[in-house]
Structures are given as C-alpha cells and as structure tokens.
Amino acid sequence: MTVYEIITERILKQMEQGTIPWRKPWKSTLGEEPANLVSKQGYKGINRFLLGALPFKRPYYVTYKQASELGGHVKKGEHGCPIIFWKRSHYTKAHSDGTETEETGFILRYYTVFNVEQCEGLQGTLALMPHIPSTPFNAIESAEGIVQGYRSAPSIIHKAGDRACYSPIHDTVTMPEQSQFTSEAEYYSTLFHELTHSTGHATRLNRTTLTELSYFGDQNYSREELVAEMGAAFLCGHANIENEAAIKNSAAYLDGWRKRLRSDSKAVILAAGQAQKAADHIIGSMGNEDASGNSAGC
After folding, report:
1. 174 and 111, same structural domain?
2. Where among 67, 102, 126 does a domain terminate?
3. Number of neighbouring beta carbons within 10 Å of residue 136
4. What does the mean pLDDT of the chain come to?
5. Pairwise CA distance, residues 162 & 180, whole Å
6. Residue 99 covered by a domain
7. Structural domains in the chain (count)
8. Are 129 and 121 in contact (CB under 8 A)?
9. 25 pLDDT exceeds 70?
C-alpha cells in the first residue's frame, strides 16, 4: 500500500470508532484565553471566539473607561471589538384585560473592548502580567525538506497571534510563531494544512473548492477543508512525523466538515484524491498530471 492509502485507511477507521474533539495545536502567546485585564475573568461564548481570532500577542482587553482608570488611554485611530452580554431588566407588562404585571427578562447589550497593545500608558500594569517562556523549536529535517522543496510556494509569514490561515488573494500563509506550538510535529502538520490550501490557487492546481469559495461553512469551504487536512496528513506521512494522536485529531477535524456535507459517505475519499494531487504538487512528483490537477487523458 502507498503512504496515501495507509493514512486514508487509518483515518477512516478512526472515524468509524468515534473521534476526539478537535483541538488547536498552538497556544496564545501568553498561554491564556482572552480575558479582561481588570477583572482577570475570561470571556465566554462567542466573545471568546471573536477576541481569540484577533492577531494580538497578549490576550488581555480593556474598555475605553478601564484604560483611562488604569492611567492610560486607547491609541488614536485604534478600533475596538464589540462583545455582547445579556443584562437583566425589569419592566411592566400590560395585559389585554387592563392589568399590569412586573416582569423580569434579559436584554442583549454590547460594549467595545480594546487589546492592551492598542493602548498606551499601561506599562506598569502590563509588567505584572505573567509571561510564559518560549518553547525551544527544533526543525524536523524531513519536513523542512518538503517545505523548502515546494516550487513557486506562497510566502510564509510567522506572526505572534492566534491564527493560521492561507490567503488566496495575497497568496500568503500566515502562521503563529513556531514557539507557540505544542510540538514540532503539530507545527508542521498545521503548516502542511495551509500549504495544501495554497495548491488550489489558480496559478497552481486551480482547485474549484478554493477558487470558488463563497462563504465560511458553505459546501466548497467544507470540501476544501477536507482536502487540506488530508493533504496535511499525507505530507506528515511523507516526512515520517505522523503519529496516532495526529491521526485522531485529523479524523475529528475531517468528521466535523464531513457532517456539514450531510454525512456524504464519499466526501473523505474524494477529498483524499484531491489531497494526493496537492501533496504530489508540493513534493514535486506530479508525474503525468496537467496543470489543473487532473490526470492527463481523463
């Protein structure tokens, strides 16, 4: 069996057995989730995701008023992020029979917060924040060989923050800093995922699941995520850095996107075929395939 067949079989078997929740393989710069600087309370629900997606090194936020009370201020021209909360409200409800009753309910409210990096004059407060030492990063030679051997590859930008993504418009891959990852293997698995996305660019394999993306979560997006994760698993296999934990994580991630396609039983297999073409493109062994990623003569 080929590397592709072995890994695909293992992932499918793991999906049949039930998968573990998908996890993010890197930590925020300070190793913490977004929190309010004053209360030290972490944000919850959708606020956690809204703030966690912002590209700041520090996970602490303040309101405009809090920044002032701490002796600082929000920098001129900075824009905050709105977060939501439910506020208890008391009101009088009139009934059709002319009577009234006192009711209690909740009203949706929002306020704006700013990351501490968007503020000035908070140095004394920031100095009290804990810093987690950077994790030493030791490059894996076999994986680096794949990255460096990618012909006409997109630019790779390392930026402290909480995002790993590929931009088709700019043809760039943005990655958290290497020291933020829980292991070297997790770093390369994430990088391979984004590089697989990049093979779908119009100047490479021109994969419609990437070039015709409409919005987050649509069918093309779901199929493209399947391709990217399978591609990452294949490239890890070629670099001999795949392991059982990585297979379980990939299976969980893939199963989540497969379910968005209404449990299409063929989705992962079809994605595996496209992922193989993507992996072959990256490692430079396209063989008899044309520029569109289709087999010649088909």
Report:
1. no
2. 126
3. 8
4. 78
5. 9
6. yes
7. 2
8. no
9. no
Alpha-carbon gap, residue 217 to 199, rounded angstroms:
20
Which structural domain, as residue segments, surrounds residue 111?
Answer: 35-126
pLDDT value of position 216: 54
Q: Are residues 39 and 23 in the same domain?
A: no
Is residue 211 within 8 Å of residue 250, measured between CB atoms?
A: no
Q: pLDDT at position 286, please?
A: 46
For the beta carbon of residue 162, count every other beta carbon within 10 angstroms.
Answer: 22
- CA separation for the pair 150, 280 (Å, rounded): 10
Taking CA atoms, 293 is separated from 115, 142, 199, 200, 298, in Å, by 43, 25, 10, 9, 11
> What long-range pairs does 239-246 form, CB within 8 A, spacing at least 24?
239/140, 239/142, 239/143, 239/145, 239/146, 239/188, 240/142, 241/140, 241/142, 241/143, 241/184, 241/185, 241/188, 241/189, 242/7, 242/185, 243/185, 246/185, 246/186, 246/189
The more confidently predicted of residues 265 and 55 is: 55
Is residue 22 located within the same domain as residue 122?
no
List the one residue out of 214, 210, 244 whose CA is nearest residue 228: 210
CA distance 210 to 116: 35
SS3 286: coil
Q: Per-residue pLDDT tens for 170-215?
A: 999 999 889 888 889 889 999 999 999 999 999 999 999 888 866 5
CA distance 3 to 215: 33
CA count, 13 A, side-chain hemisphere, 208: 2
CA distance 102 to 263: 48
- Count CA within 13 A, CB hemisphere, residue 267: 25
